[in-house]
Amino acid sequence: MPQGWQIRNYIDGRWRAPAADGSQVTNPATGEVLARAPVGAPEEVAAAAEAAARAYGEWRAVPPGDRIQCLFRLKQLLEEHFQEISRLISLENGKTLAEARGELRRGIENVEVACGIPTLMQGYNLEDVARGIDETMIRQPLGVVAAVTPFNFPVMIPLWFLPYAVACGNTFVLKPSEKVPLSMGRVFELIEQAGFPAGVVNLVNGARPAVDALLDHPAVKAISLVGSTPVARHVYARAAANGKRVQCQGGAKNHVVVMADADPATTTQIIADSAFGCAGQRCLAVSVGVTVGEAREWFPRSITERAGSLRVGCGLEEGVEMGPVITPASKARIEGLIAQGVAEGAAARLDGRGIRVPGYERGNFVGPTILEGLPAASDLTDTEIFGPVLSLIHAATLEEAIAILARSVYGNQASLFTSSGAAARQFRNQVPAGNVGINIGVAAPMAYFPFTGWKGSFFGTLHAQGRDAVEFYTDKKVVIERWPREWSRRF
Predict the structure, then answer these.
(1) 372 - beta bridge partners?
(2) Cβ(221)–Cβ(142) under 8 Å?
(3) CA of 471: how far to CAs of 71, 123, 210, 463, in Å?
(4) In 3D, which of 325, 334, 329, 332 has the Cα closest to residue 365?
(5) Which residues contact 270 (CB under 8 A, 6 or more apart)?
(6) Can you give the pLDDT at residue 2?
(7) 8 A C-beta contact, residue 262 and residue 289
(8) Exposure string over 119-152, b if 16+ CB within 10 A, otherwise e
(9) Low-confidence ranges of the chain (pLDDT < 50)
C-alpha cells in the first residue's frame, strides 16, 4: 500500500471521497504517515444507512442459499490475497506478520461459518399444539445493522459481524477504527469483487462523529461494537435509548492462575505468548498472573527470563516476536501506568520503558514489563493497561485465587494452568468470566462458538460469532395456524 493512499468510503456500491480529513494514519514501527483518516460526517453516515435501507427489501428476499454465494466468493478472494492483507495488517497495526496471518485466518473462519446460514437460520415447528392447530417459529432479518470496530484486530473483528449480518438477510454499515482504515479498505475492494448488490455492504470511515451518527440514525436497527469499557457503555446507552438492539464488547483485566503442579516450561511459554503477543493489545491478553502455593518459587523467575528474551521490533521483519503499540499516545500512557505501579510499591522485575529498536527510533515501542507485588489498593488492579505489562501476585490456595478474580470489575477471560482435573473443574465452574482457558493462554472461541465476555467486559445479551450472531441479527416470528376442514368445503 503506497504512502499517501486515499481513504475512501464505499456507499451504495460506489467509492466516494470523504468530506474532510482528520487524523493521520501512521506506521507504528516507523512513525511514517501512511494516509489521513477522515473525521466522518453525519451526512456520509446517513448516505450509507439510507443506501442500506433501500437495498434491504430486495436483499432479504434473496434465498439464503443464494445470499451465501457472495460469501463463498469473498472467502476465496481472501484466500487469494491472504499474504497481501496480512502484510497490510502488520503495516498499519504493528503486530508481527505471524500474528496478522493468525488474525486473518480467524476472520476467514467466520466467513466460512456464516456460509452455513441455510441451516443456522432455520426455525422450528410443532404440529397439533392444540387439536388442528400447528405452530411454527421462523427467523427474519432485522433490516439495516452496523458495526464499530477497534484498531487491535483490523480485519478479524469486522468479520465477526459482517458475514452473519448479510447472510441472515440484513444490510450492513461498517465504521472501522480511524487508526487502521487501510486493511478493511482493501477487504472492501474484495467485497466489491464478490458481487454483493449495491447498498448491501457499506463502509464509512471516521471517528466519534460517525459513531454517534450511526447510533442516532433511525434506519439502523442494531449496533455491534468492540472497544474500551467507557466507549462500550456510551454506545450501549445511546443506542438502547434510540431503541436499537445492541452488543458491546468492552475492556478486560484478564487473570491467569498458575498452580504448583503446572508444567513450568509449557506454562511459561504459553503465558508469555498471551501477555506479550500483539504487544498486549488484545482483549484476551493475560495481564495478571496469580501464583498459587509453590508456583511462587519458579513462575516469576521463568516468566521474567522468557519475557526478557523476546525480540522486539518491526512486525514485518523475520524473527521479531513483538511489535510496537499503536500510537505515541498509547506508548506514553502505558509507560505512565508502569511508573504509577512502581511508585505505588510494585517491583519492576522487567521494565520495558524507554526501549530503543535500532533503525526504528521513531517507533512506538514498549518492551515486555513485569510488575510484582502491586498493592491490592492500587487503581491499576482494575485498569486495563492494554500493553505488554504483566502483574504478578500470590494466593495461598485456588479458592483464594478465584476470590481475587471475582473482585475484578471485568470478566472477559480467566485461565488456569494445572495438571489436576479436579482443580480445572472447580475453576471452570466457579470463575466469573465468559471465556475460560484450561492450560490455554488465549481462550479465543472458534467461529462457531460465541465470544462470551461477562461483567464490565460486555454489555448486551447476545455475543459475537456462531449461533449468537444468528440470534442477534434475526427477529423471531411465531405463526399459529388453523385450517378447519369445513371451511375448505365452502369453495
Answers:
(1) 347, 392
(2) yes
(3) 19, 11, 26, 9
(4) 325
(5) 417, 439, 440, 441
(6) 43
(7) no
(8) ebbeeeeeeeeeeeeeeeeebebbbbbbbbbbbb
(9) 1-3
C-alpha closest to that of 275 among 153, 436, 385: 385
CB atoms within 10 A of CB 112: 14
Q: Buried (b) or exposed (e) across 29-63, using 16+ Cβ within 10 A? A: bbbeebbbbbbbbbebbbbbbbbbbbbbeebbeee
Per-residue HEC secondary structure of the chain comes to CCCCCCCCEEECCEEECCCCEEEEEECCCCCCEEEEEECCCHHHHHHHHHHHHHHHHHHHHCCHHHHHHHHHHHHHHHHHCHHHHHHHHHHHHCCCHHHHHHHHHHHHHHHHHHCCHHHHCCCEEEEEEECCEEEEEEEEECCEEEEECCCCCCCCCHHHHHHHHHHCCCEEEEECCCCCCHHHHHHHHHHHHHCCCCCCEEECCCCHHHHHHHHHCCCEEEEEEECCHHHHHHHHHHHHHCCCEEEEECCCCEEEEECCCCCHHHHHHHHHHHHHHHHHCCCCCEEEEEEECCHHHHHHHHHHHHHHHCCECCCCCCCCCECCCCCHHHHHHHHHHHHHHHHCCCEEEECCCCCCCCCCCCCCCCCCEEEECCCCCCHHHHCCCCCCEEEEEEECCHHHHHHHHHCCCEECEEEEECCCHHHHHHHHHHCCCCEEEECCCCCCCCCCCCECCEECCEECCCCECHHHHHHHCEEEEEEEEECCHHHHCCC
What would you measure as the largest C-alpha separation in the chain, in angstroms? 90
* Closest to 71 measured CA to CA, from 204, 191, 197: 191
Q: Which active-site residues does the annotation give?
A: 283
Between CA 200 and CA 53 the distance in angstroms is: 9
The whole-angstrom separation of Cα 354 and Cα 121 is 52
The single-letter code of the amino acid at 189 is E
> Residue 293: what residue type?
G
Terminal-to-terminal C-alpha distance of the chain: 69
Q: How many CB atoms lie within 10 A of CB 487?
A: 9
pLDDT on residue 13: 98
Angle between helices 64-80 and 82-93 (to 10 degrees): 70
Of 205, 175, 201, 178, the C-alpha closest to 190 is 201
Q: Do the beta carbons of residue 200 and residue 55 sit within 8 Å? A: yes
Which pLDDT value is given to residue 1?
Answer: 40
- For 138, phi then psi, to 5°, come to -120, 155
Q: And the C-alpha cell for 230?
A: 467507557
Q: How many CB atoms lie within 10 A of CB 79?
A: 12
pLDDT in the model for residue 490: 64
Which cell numbers in the block locate residue 422?
Answer: 479436579
Q: What pLDDT is recorded for position 4?
A: 57
Beta bridge partners of 9: 16
